[in-house]
Design brief:
By secondary structure, the protein is of the alpha/beta class. The chain has helices at about 15-30, 55-65, 90-100, 165-180, 190-200, 225-235, 255-265, 300-310, 325-330, 365-375, 375-395, 395-415; strands at about 1-10, 30-40, 45-50, 105, 125-130, 185-190, 210, 240-245, 270-275, 290-295, 315, 335-340, 355-360. InterPro entries: Glyco_trans_1 (IPR001296), Glyco_trans_4-like_N (IPR028098), Glycosyltransferase_grp1 (IPR050194).
Length: about 425
Amino acid sequence: MKIVIVNSFDNVGGAARAAYRLHKSLLSKGIDSNMIVQRKLSDDYTVQSFPKGLFQELLAKIKHILDLLPLRFYKNKTKTLFSPSWLGLNNVVNQINAINPDVVHLHWICGGMIKVEELAKIKAPIVWTLHDNWAFTGGCHIMWDCDKYTADCGSCPRLGSTKENDLSRYVFNRKKKTYAKLPNMVINGLSEWITDCAKKSTLFRNHKVINIPNPIDTDLFTPFDKKVARSLWKFPQDKKLVLFGAIAATSDVNKGYQQLENALEFLNNEDIELVIFGSSEPKEKDFVKFKTHYLGHLSDDVSLVSLYNSVDLVVVPSLQETLPQVATEAMSCGTPVVAFGHTGLLDIVEHRKTGYLAKPFDNKDLANGIKWVLDDNNHSLLSVNSRKKIVDNFNSSLVTDKYIKLYQEILLDNKHML
C-alpha cells in the first residue's frame, strides 16, 4: 500500500509535526509512505519537496505572501490567518499523481501550496485531516464563534466585511464546486469538536466525516526525573514552574497569551515562576510579579521532552484548538494541563483528573485551575492519570493502526466502484 502525505511544511507548526509523525509511524509499520511538502526544512530523505528548478524554489519562499494579496482590499481584517488559496503556479498535483499512490492524505495545504481547484485533479482517493477550520470555511483558519460556514459564508467577520458577496463567499463557492467533484473524499476531524463542525458545514455535509486523532510517540514523550530535567535547563529546584508555549506564543491572539496574563493577576504565590517557549524575551516585561524564563523557539522533540518534565504544569489558554499537541505531549510526560474547557481540549484534558478545565473564558477560574493543580495533594495522581490518558488513546501504534485500517477500507471501497 502506497500513501502520499501532503503538508505545506515538514517540521514547522503543529500540523507539520503531526503529519510528519504519522508519516514516520507508517514507515515503521512497513507502509510505503511518501511525504510531499512545499518547503522542506529538515534533511530527512523520506520527505520530498516539490519545487523543481531555481524559479520554483524562489517562488515557494514567497507564495504565502502572494496568496494573501487579495486581503489588501480588506482594511478592517483581523490578524487571524485567512487563505484565499488562489495560486496555481506549481506542479505539486502532477508530482502526487506521478507517485501513483493508493491514497493521498492531505493535512495543512495553505500558504500558497495548492490552488483549491487543483484538488479535483488528484487521481487517487483522498483523506483530508482537519488541523483548523479552513477546509470548510470561506478562507478563515480560526472561526471562533462565527457559524456562517453552515450556510455559505459572506460578510466575513475575520475580513471585517459587511458585504455578502465578499472574498469569503467567493472562496466558499470555489470550494463548493471543487468538492462536488470529489464525492468520495473522506474528512478526518482530529477532535470530536471539529468533527462535529465539519458535519454541520455546508461544504462537507455530503461527505464521510470521521474522527481519528494525531499520533504521539509515548516511548519518546515519557516521564523522567524532574530534578534532572530542571538541572538541564538550569531551572530552580525549589519553585513551582508553569509552562506556556506555542508557535508565536506571545503574538498569536488565539493562543491566549492575554488571557494568561490576566489570569496571573489573581495569583500571588511567590514560589511560582513562568517558563515560555515559542517566543524570545520581550523588551517590555509583561509578567512583573513573576520571574519568567523565555526559551525562544524549540523545534526538536528531545528538548520538548526535557522541558515538559521540568515543569509542574502546562497552561493552554487558547481561544480555539483543534487538538493541541502541546497538551498531548505534556500529558504523555506526566505533566498536567490547565486550559479552558472547550473545542479540542475536551478530548484531552479530563477536569480534575488529568488537569483542570476552566470555564471559557473565565480568567479567574483559569487562575484557580493553576492553583489547584500546583497543590501537592493533587499533583501526583494528576501526573499518573495524564500519562495513562495519552498512552491509552493517542499512542502512535494504536492511532497509526486506525489510519491503516481507514486506508484499507478506502481501497476496498474503491475496488468495488471499479
